[in-house]
What we know:
The protein contains eleven helices and nine strands. It is an alpha/beta fold and about 260 residues long. Helix 5 (about 145-155) packs across helix 6 and helix 9 runs antiparallel to helix 10.
Amino acid sequence: MNEPLLVSVDDGLAHLTLNRPARLNAFNAEMAFAWERATVNLTSRSDVGAILIDGAGPGFCAGGDVIDMATTMGSPSELEDLAHTIHRGIRALTESSVPVVAAVHGVTAGGGLGVLLSSDYVVAASGARIGSRYANIGLTPDLSVSAQLARAVGTRRALQLVLSDRMLTAEEAQCWGLVAEVVHGEGYAARAHAVARSWLDGAAGAYGEAKRLIRSSCSRSFADQLDEEARTIAASFGTDEARARIAAFLEARSDRAAERH
Length: 261
């Protein structure tokens, strides 16, 4: 049996592939528990500085496996427990200081939209389609869709998605702010990898802390957020990473000044 989730770590980059292509990478119980284990583990590892999420086969993620739910779950409480399991992985990603890029193609719908929203930067193939579609089967949003969608696109647009069966094109999703880049052809995967590598090759610690500051800001008052900004920039100023980059900045500035004279 194929693993429902493929996980690897190479030189600071964790690569997580949703791997149920025959079901458009929809979550069943096995995949849910694998997702929780992998995300909690990767976001707590000191050797992981960025995470790349993608999907095997013809689509990114179609949400929950409705066929599996209907045939294996005997009560609503089982579905609730499974949602909590996946949600722990969602929280691990969004509450961490590890930046996450998603490479999406084909269909992203239902809970797949929640996975997309839990990434910090999305690169989409030009043929990708993104929507909610929970109500099409009489269900309500989960996997953080109700928590994150309106923050990403605004309340009115969020309502347009959850109250209809509309599927956005990749270009529409970019216009709405769900997608950062649209890439034609197969280059979307390489571009997502390049984005993750740029974080690792740059000020990785600062990128991670910047992600954490933005992601966690809604849980603080304005004054508390300013305090957190002050604490974080002071802490970053004392790191070897910042010292080296500030020294390089000052040296380059000195060289430019010398050239002008």
